[in-house]
Amino acid sequence: MRLPLAALALFGLAMPAAAGGEYEKWFAGKGADSVCYSRKYDAAHMARHPRQKVIAIELDFDANSSRTEGGRPTRFVVGLTVRFKDKSGWYGSVTLCNERATGGLACSLESDGGQFNLQEAGDGLELRPTTEISIEGEDFVTFGGKNSDDNVFILKTSPQSVCDASTAEFR
Question: 13: buried, middle or exposed (CB in 10 Å: 19+, 13-18, 0-12)?
Answer without folding.
Answer: exposed
